[in-house]
Amino acid sequence: MTNSDHTSKIVIVPCSGIGKTYGTVSREAAYNVTEDLRPEDTRLVALSKLVLGDEEARSIIEGNPAITIDGCKLACATKMVQENGGRIAQDYAVLDVYRRYKQFKPLGIAELNEGGVQLAQALANEITQVVDELISGMGGEDNG
Amino acid sequence: MTDFLEFTIDKFTFRTATDRFYDDMGLWVKPENNHIRIGISDYLQQRSGDVAFMEVKPVGTGVAFGDELAVIETIKVNISLTSPVTGRVIEVNPAMGTSPEAINQDPYGAGWLVVIEAAEWATDLKHLLEPQVYFTKIKLEADQEVKKE
């Protein structure tokens, strides 16, 4: 990872649902943002760490704005960030994203079909825009 | 006010409205004067999962009993819903195009699908189930699935 001028990073918290297509889309989108599109401005926090009460994960959540990606209406990612004192800058539900990109029908679990990959990419692109806006806002605050 | 029959399995509670009929698939059928309002039962919507898209035959379409009336795409399955009555579609719930999640949120109310002007209601009624019969059917089905697990 390269160094960044930003002291704060945007935290991405995807669904942890294993064995669910929409959960997989949420994680693929999160990996895409944190590893490829905006690695210097974001970091991924595994939902399971929040569920288990991991102190480091909790500390990261408390100190940085979060973008949550939920795979179903239980909205575990959003709820766990809130319960751990996090500030949610933007929350996404994969089903709502799919409704915006009907042409990308996700299938598969361990390995997404082409539609799922494209849906994850579309979601990652949307998240990247939000990240850029948040980082821009942070810079404005820093500059007073 | 609508009354419900209900049963609970694990964390899921399934409700059956008592003021309407049902078909085998799980569509509810509610006579309103000369028209028939149709929707999806709570059991069917919970079994099918969150609705992504719903495509319903447009107003003016003639349907016979058993013809495809709508196609529902959920996070789990795609289902072709067949018409439980013969007649003509005279109204489609506009929410189906913009916010089909109404089916999940309020299956017996805001989540209705279509209104049909029935042509052979007396005949269609013979195919439909009274709410208590439908309730018994789905409860048995759910109980059997639990036993398999």
Keywords for this structure?
heterodimer, A: 144 residues, alpha/beta, four-stranded parallel beta sheet, 6 helices, globular, disordered N terminus, B: 149 residues, alpha+beta, six-stranded antiparallel beta sheet, three-stranded antiparallel beta sheet
Descriptive notes:
- The complex is a heterodimer of chains A (144) and B (149).
- With 144 residues, chain A is an alpha/beta fold.
- Chain A has six helices and four strands; from the N terminus they run βαβααβαβαα.
- Chain A has helices at 21-37, 47-51, 55-63, 76-83, 94-100, 114-142, and strands at residues 10-14, 42-44, 65-70, 87-93.
- Chain A has a four-stranded parallel β-sheet, sandwiched between helices.
- The radius of gyration of chain A is 15 Å and the shape is globular.
- Chain B has 149 residues and is α+β, with helices and mostly antiparallel strands.
- Chain B has a six-stranded antiparallel β-sheet. A three-stranded antiparallel β-sheet of chain B has the order 6-8-9, with no helix packed on it. A two-stranded antiparallel sheet of chain B has the order 1-2.
- The longest helix of chain B has 18 residues, at 131-148.
- The radius of gyration of chain B is 15 Å and the shape is globular.
- Classes of the chains: A alpha/beta (144), B alpha+beta (149).
- Chain A binds chain B through residues 21-22, 72-73, 95, 98-99, 102, and chain B through 50, 52-53, 75, 104.
Please specify the SSE layout and strand pairing.
The complex is a heterodimer of chains A (144) and B (149).
Chain A: E1 10-14, H1 21-37, E2 42-44, H2 47-51, H3 55-63, E3 65-70, H4 76-83, E4 87-93, H5 94-100, H6 114-142
Chain B: E1 4-9, E2 12-17, E3 21-22, E4 27-32, E5 35-40, H1 42-48, E6 51-56, E7 62-63, E8 68-74, E9 78-82, E10 87-92, H2 95-98, H3 102-105, E11 114-118, H4 121-125, H5 131-148
Antiparallel strand pairs in B: 1-2, 3-4, 4-5, 5-11, 6-8, 7-10, 8-9, 10-11
